[in-house]
């Protein structure tokens, strides 16, 4: 004989009264709240000053395929000796080194080393064919 099982009823929660109470509380707080039109918040805003940007000198050092050195300064090209490079870099903040792509790596590294010893902050490297 088979046993008869009684089906259980699934319990459910009725949310209608809960929603009514939430809306009543919302309406109560909206009606009882007063808004201050003149309230303010003090914020400490940082101050700054505008500094005039000084024109920094920029030069370009060009090394050709025969290891001849040139400086391009103010749009003019001057041939230089690599040993006199320190005299040309006085007060310069930015230097660009341009070299032939067939140069030895050591040649470019020698120029970069001499530039860095002079205290140049920004250094760029370019190659041409």
Q: Give the overall shape.
A: elongated
Q: What is the strand content?
A: 15-25%
**How are the strands of the largest sheet arranged?**
3-2-1-4-5
Arithmetic mean pLDDT:
84
Show unreliable segments.
none
Rg from Cα = 39 Å
Write the H/E string, N to C.
Answer: HEEEHEHE
Largest sheet: 5 strands, mixed
Explain what this protein looks like in three dimensions.
The chain is α/β, with parallel strands linked by helices. The protein has helices at residues 16-32, 85-88, 105-117; strands at 58-63, 69-73, 76-80, 94-100, 122-128. Helix 3 (105-117) links the parallel strand 4 (94-100) and strand 5 (122-128).
Write the layout of secondary structure elements.
Elements: H1 16-32, E1 58-63, E2 69-73, E3 76-80, H2 85-88, E4 94-100, H3 105-117, E5 122-128
Parallel strand pairs: 1-4, 4-5
Antiparallel strand pairs: 1-2, 2-3
Brief write-up:
With 129 residues, the protein is α/β, with parallel strands linked by helices. The chain is built from 3 helices and 5 strands.
